[in-house]
Amino acid sequence: MSSLKPNPWLKKLDVYEGGRSKAPGAARVIKLSSNESALGTSPRVLTAYRDAATTLHRYPDATSWDLKEAIGAAHGLDPARIVCGLGSDEILKLACRAYAGPDTEVIYSRYGFMMYPIAARSVGATPVEAADVNYSADVKAILDAVTARTRIVFLANPNNPTGTYLPRHEIERLAGGLPPHVLLVLDAAYAEYVDSDDYVAGHELVASFPNVLVTRTFSKIYGIAALRLGWGYGSTEVTETLERLRDPFNVPAPTQAAGIAAVRDQEWVARARNYNAIWRQQMTDAVSDLGLTVVPSAANFILIRFPERDGVTAEAANAFLTKNGVLLRWLPKQGLGDCLRMTIGLEEENREALRLLKAFLESTGR
Ligand SMILES: *Cc1c(COP(=O)(O)O)cnc(C)c1O
């Protein structure tokens, strides 16, 4: 052992585990474990990405300015208040580096996105879990958890892995109830998939709440998870702080080019949204018909609950599906050992997952 002294809080830092992509022994793999887009990447985006390959010897635009303008135009937002990151994960971590640290607390909801405690711990802050209600975030529990040490509240809306969302009035209640020194990060990674009228990603809150930061990603509906692109929108105060902290050339040039093409191709987004809405409903109904419980989802995945008796457990179902090449997400470390999260895939992928779930239940004698 050397006498190096890593920061003591790093001992408690869990490594983020992504969805599995391999099923040893299976003839083919159906990957429904990471909420990637069923429809994949738009052809226009692929063209833009390939074109960017001719200038790989050049550094990227350090400000990602054209990308910010394209995002701003698509969403009706001021590009000067957009900060781009290597995935929205980078924005979440920048927020922690900027506003949290040792002797501070970072709040998130029970069954909230796994990155929040990791990002909090990476800077020495203490993650604080607020109770949920029925797999949904509870504004009162979050507000009750606030102390003088609280610096950030993270809320994924819709939430991963539960798929539940809070409507506009609840988000307003949360923003209005937080002390102004607490940064509220509204992580809207799945915003494009929501079709309820009472949903807002939260951009319009920024005008009245300088302590609100909304984060978005290109990893889900835009179908470019491999390129690692996300962004945040907040008050000038917040975005300028994050801009100062980020690496100078954080977003690679091909990623910027692909992002610009992606955000301009709203036809592709609409297709993916419509496709998802149909299959999210079909899978919810079909899995419920098998006698399993599905948490109502606003996103591109469903959370399936198992009774956990007579052999009908999430763990056994996960093993059965994996052996047959279908990868879902089992999340025992998040306290969801009785659940499997399934990303909505292509029709034949969804049907195969269903067929195997049914076969699994039959194998247990149900
Ligand atoms: C997938 C996901 C993200 C996106 O992360 P990227 O770093 O942009 O790929 C962010 N938040 C939640 C809740 C997610 O599920």
Average pLDDT for all residues = 97
Through-space gap between termini: 54 Å
Q: Quick one: overall form?
A: globular
Which structural category do the helix and sheet elements fall into? alpha/beta
CATH architecture of the largest domain: 3-Layer(aba) Sandwich
Give the helix tally. 11
Identify low-pLDDT runs: none
CATH topology of the largest domain: Aspartate Aminotransferase, domain 2
Question: If you compute it from the alpha carbons, what radius of gyration comes out, rounded to the nearest whole angstrom?
Answer: 21 Å
Ligand kinds: pyridoxal-5'-phosphate
- Highest-level CATH class of the largest domain: Alpha Beta
H/E element sequence = EHHEHEHEEEHEHEEEHHHEEHEEEH
In total, how many beta strands? 15
How is the largest sheet built, in terms of strand order?
A: 2-10-9-8-7-3-4
